[in-house]
Specification:
The protein is of the alpha/beta class. The chain contains two helices and ten strands. It is 14% helix and 15% strand. The longest helix has 14 residues.
Length: 191
């Protein structure tokens, strides 16, 4: 596995700032978003306390890296930048936890709200898979929408998003991948 400048700096930052977890988390967040990491070890998976992410619109030009927030199961709210074109594969995959209790129904927590801007045209495979608690909203906090420009939804994009009860698909949508909404309360129309 090759190591890039981002990996070296991240390791040094973590070693120097063991008591300053917020600073370390912010660095990892920055390296993940900008795609500076070259290892396959993931990115913000070490930021266990990360709960809310509001990405500045300046991030849209470079995009958010694949796997950027994978397994950040304490994450509850995400606002993606205006102008973002693509949500890459596994970006928010695993941002949820499920507790099974034999005495009662399952209990879910994790990513609850994701605001997808109207500029997004593609949602990659497994982008939100295993976000058990996810509910999609528009910028006003209403509806169950992807935005107006989504053309492609990848395989398993919303797999195991069991809290999704409604999605309003835009007329721009041309492709829905295999099992895109499997293990949810949704049923796709057959043609």
């Amino acid at each position: 596995v090759s190591r890039g400048l981002g990996d070296v700096y991240k390791r040094q930052t973590l070693e120097k700032n063991k008591d300053s977890s917020m600073e370390s988390q912010m660095f990892m967040l920055t390296t993940s978003i900008l795609g500076l990491q070259s290892s396959t070890a993931g990115s913000v998976t070490y930021a266990f306390g990360l709960q809310k992410v509001i990405l500045p619109d300046s991030v849209a030009a470079r995009g958010i890296g694949a796997h950027a927030f994978e397994n950040c199961f304490n994450l509850t709210t995400v606002r993606l930048p205006k102008g973002l074109k693509e949500i890459k594969e596994y970006t928010f995959s695993g941002c949820g936890k499920k507790f099974a209790d034999n005495q009662k129904a399952d209990d879910f927590y994790g990513l609850r709200t994701a605001v997808i801007p109207d500029t997004v045209t593609s949602i990659g495979k497994n982008a939100f898979s295993k976000c058990y608690n996810l509910v999609l909203t528009d910028e006003k906090g209403m509806g169950s929408t992807f935005g107006l420009s989504v053309q492609t939804i990848g395989d398993y994009a919303f797999d195991n998003c069991v809290s999704l009860e409604e999605i309003i698909f835009p007329s721009s949508l041309t492709t829905i991948g295999n099992n895109a909404v499997s293990y949810t309360h949704l049923t796709l129309p057959t043609t």
